[in-house]
């Protein structure tokens, strides 16, 4: 089987040269499971492959029996996955095309409406995909496999979901050795899966449901030690959706890090909810090398917090940020603009809050109703969903990465807000927050701090090589801000008042 990670090189537009390339964790986990069963599979990643069709042809030449292609697709990469899979099917008509991942799990009927796709594996893919692979290779009927969707007699059939839970400790070590391309950032670990909360905008929970489980702390610590000793990794980002869900395992991991002396060689970053923190826990994490924490703050409005079913309050988030800053953490956060019920005034207050808290890094995203989320259901029910082509506008960072001359239309707008208003508020937020020498210096010269969302180079030589791309980026951003100023001072089409701009720029 050839497993393909669908994520085109230009996914993040003008920012693409400055984003670290993360290993496709889902594809890597599938490969790990197959390896535990004694089966080696091939991997192709659109993020780094110079010629995907050559990868396909190389696999086809050496494969025995029926050709099997598995595509891992997010909503934003679906268009690319559909195009490549159709090309493969045209060239190899007898090949089996399988789709899996977050978007196919949420929208299996949509995927199977494309006649060249044979199967959709829903939910966590390791066990059902391996069973499907074995059935295809052995010539057995695969139609009884749990979590499988397929066409039969012109109808789409959805088998029941697999109820058995994959034990994460049964997986072998993540196959970092399959991803040694120098463009990858190997500094990551996934130590748990799932999140037990109900945020209406989160699509990460679609494959796992509300199930939460974790890797044994000693195994996670062994992985950290291996990354340090074998690959020279000194900074590790924990990619867990919510690192602090289970406190006892966090403390076991702290003990393992101490026992192995890893806190003297490595530093770590993690994502957490404000209501999961405490002063003791954060201090204990800081003492063993955890230096960066990322909070999803989302909004400054307590009412909107209830609307999005976050399950925590703005006050709890604020208290957690202040506590983390006091202890010495580098603190990053996100806010989401354009949530249901939100107003321009709410967005201005969010900008003020981000500055008041003296956050180190912030992303201001636009609300995106990914299929399978409650926000998507709200957008559909209120007739406020807009899909451009094959989900080309489903980008939560669209406002900042788009060309100023070709804006990416929003996929959702709340009542009483226009796209232009929200776009201007997002641009104002970035301008007010980052027009600061110390923050810009940190972004450019300390890329390993924070959530790792921008990297202009690990050293001066890399930075020098990116000067043309930086110049192009600066030009595009400058045009965006000039358009913002024109709306504020001349067109009268913005709700932003000049006094608001002056006040936010001063603080």
Description:
The structure is a single chain. The protein is an alpha/beta fold and 507 residues long. The chain has two domains: 2-152, Rossmann fold (3-Layer(aba) Sandwich), CATH 3.40.50; 186-506, tm_1862 like domain (pyruvate-formate lyase- activating enzyme, Alpha-Beta Horseshoe). It is 41% helix and 14% strand. The strands form four sheets. It has a seven-stranded mixed β-sheet, with helices on both faces. Helix 9 (279-287) links the parallel strand 14 and strand 15. Helix 1 (25-36) packs across helix 6, helix 12 (344-356) runs parallel beside helix 15 (419-434) and helix 15 packs across helix 18 (467-491). It starts with a strand and ends with a helix. The model has no long low-confidence stretch (mean pLDDT 91).
Looking at CATH, the homologous superfamily of the largest domain is tm_1862 like domain
Q: Might you state the CATH topology name of the largest domain?
A: pyruvate-formate lyase- activating enzyme
Please tell me what the overall shape is. Answer: globular
Class inferred from helices and paired strands: alpha/beta
- Strand arrangement, largest sheet? 3-1-4-5-6-7-8
User: How many domains?
Assistant: 2
Helical fraction equals 40-55%
With helices defined by DSSP (H or I, 4 residues minimum), what is the helix count?
19
CATH architecture of the largest domain: Alpha-Beta Horseshoe
Task: Name the poorly predicted regions.
Answer: none
The count of β-strands is 17
**pLDDT average, as an integer?**
91
Integer-rounded radius of gyration: 23 Å
What separation lies between the terminal Cα atoms? 56 Å
CATH class of the largest domain: Alpha Beta
Q: Quick one: biggest sheet?
A: 7 strands, mixed
